[in-house]
Every structure is written in C-alpha cells, then in structure tokens.
Please model this.
Amino acid sequence: MLFDERPKTRREDLFNRDEELNQLLANLHRPLIVVSGVRRIGKTSLLLVALNESKLPFILVDARKLKDNYGWKDVYGLLSQALSSSLDKIVDVIRKVRGVSILGTSVELSWKGKRYVSLADLFDHLNQKRIVIAIDEAQRLRGPLSREIREAIAHAYDYDRNLTFILTGSEVGLLYDFVGVEDHDSPLYGRYFYELRLDRFSRESGVEFLRRGFKEAGKNVDEGMIQEIVNFFDGIPGWLTLAGNYVVAGKNIEEVKEMSLGVAVNEISNLVRSKRNVSEIVGRRYRHTLKCISEGNNSWSKLYECLTRREGSTLSSNSLSNILQQLEKMSIIHDYEFLDPVYREAVKRL
Ligand code: ADP
Ligand code: MG
Model:
C-alpha cells in the first residue's frame, strides 16, 4: 500500500525509487555507504527495501533514540535491540563472543567490567559472515563518544571485509560532521564512501503518487484536491503519505494542512527548545532567525536587518553566521530558504 504510513519494506510499495534502489543494491559490496536527504524523503524506506531485496543478514541500529549526551549504556542498549531483532540470522557468529549473552530471544551486551565486548571486537566477530550494519539517523552519534565509535567503524572498514556500513541522516551537514569528511583528525577522514542523496519527487511524480494511492484506497478524489496537496507539500513523500491518509479519512484540504502544520510546529518547537537549553538568548535568536527567513528575508543583509529589528539590539555577524550554519547543517534551510515548505509555514506560528 502506497499510503502505508510506516517506512516501506517491499519494492512494490516503494514509489519511483527504482533508480536509487538499484544504485544502492549495486554498491552494497562497499565498506561504507551514506544515504542522505531531508526528513520524510524516504531514507528508511529505501534502506529497508534494499536490505530485504539483498537477502543479506543485517542489523539495524535506530540512532534516533539517542539523547544528546548519550553514553555507552545507551549505545549498547541500541545495539542489543538491533542484534536481538536479527538474532536468527546472526546467532551463529555472536553466540560464543565474550561479553555477549543470549537469553531466549534477546541479546545482552556488557560494555564494562572484566567480561565486556568492545565495538571493534563485536564487528570482528560479525565479520565471520557477510552482514550489513545499518545505522539510521547516524548524526545522532555525534557527541561524547563519536570518536570511539568512528574508530571502531574505521577499524572494520580496514579489516572486516565482510561488513558493510550504511549510515542514513536527515541532518545532512551534521552527518558529514560525524563521518568527518572534512576533518583531518577524524578516524574516517579520507576514506571513500558511496553517497546516495534522495531528492523529492517531481511535481508529476507527486501527482501520480497521490492518484495511485487514492486509487488503491478506493477513494475518489478530484484533480483539484490532488494539485492542491502537491502545491502545499511539494514532492516530499512523507508529507504526501500523511496528507493522503487524512484525505482518505475524510478530511478536507484545510484540515489536512492544519494537521500537518501541527506536526511540523511540534518538530520545530523541539529544535528551538533544544537551543533554549543552551541559553535563553540563543533559543530566542534561533526563533527570530527562522521567522525572518520564513518572511522571505533571503539575503544576509535583509536577514541581519530583520533580526536586529526583532531583537531590538545589535548582533555580531559571527553570531548570525553560526546560527545559519547550524540551520544549514540540520538541513532546515539552504541559501536562506526552507527546504521543507511545511516547516516554512509552521515557523510563522512559533
Ligand atoms: P525518512 O526516513 O527519510 O524520514 P521514511 O522512509 O520514514 O523517510 O518515509 C516517510 C514516509 O513516507 C513513510 O510513511 C513512508 O512510507 C513514505 N514514503 C517515503 N518514500 C516513499 C516512496 N518512495 N514510496 C512510497 N512511500 C514512501
Ligand atoms: Mg527515517
């Protein structure tokens, strides 16, 4: 079903991504692959479909759940969940590893004490057979332990030839920071990785996606409504899917917009809140910057002028460029424009 709101897992449910899927499958032999693109563009879906098609055993680590100042306990918690979910495929290679216990259907890992398993050890054992290790939203691994985690991945890159790592990320600049593409000190610096960037659907594909989805759902929807959905949500598959579901449930276009905006407002408020945790002033500046951009201030000078007016105070140009750089790295904006049209509207309500 095209409108199934979960990440897709089967090729026939994945709309218009044949090329990307084939590219990913053709590159699965590589040590390191990065799948990037804004939120809701279909990274997890592409990843899951490719993993299923490949028939290879895989472990899928969902890094979204990590908090900013995560520790080893959290990383090993995610890993043990991931290993447990794929236990039947990998039990043979982890059964006898020191620091790993298998209790029924769950895998427990020790990250400290006498009998602990290091990440590099674990990778070396997994390497006994061909396995894909996928880390979804891997930019969440930035932070206190990123160096050690990258060192373990770099070790596997060099020595564990049966392993392939796939990292996905919605916050593309932050994902690059984690991998350390431009950082000479990064353990992964200078190593080649294959990158697949997912783009939104073209207008025609977006329209086609909705038509097919409504047809599958047995819902008659007039062409005007379809055009209006694509106008508002652009070709971002996750928004189209959400909108499709609301329409099938009987909502009119205004209600669909309203509900989606609610989702986006919530996400963007979380972002501002996380900045407010740094300081009240920083949080406010982010909010004002976002608002100024949503009002169409699409150059440095316009934005600077808008921001000083809103703040009622002077502002160092450093401070504005830091905020802009961060927002770009989080893939919220690019060149003074929002990447997601729903975010642009949501910001007006902050
Ligand atoms: P991401 O991981 O990039 O945030 P997801 O894979 O979770 O995106 O997709 C977001 C939503 O959009 C899900 O409901 C998913 O089913 C749907 N979706 C994404 N891409 C496609 C596609 N190519 N065909 C059908 N549905 C898709
Ligand atoms: Mg995802």
User: Anything to note?
Assistant: The chain has two domains: 17-197, 205-347. The pocket of magnesium ion (ligand 2) is lined by residues 43-44, 136 (CB under 6 Å).
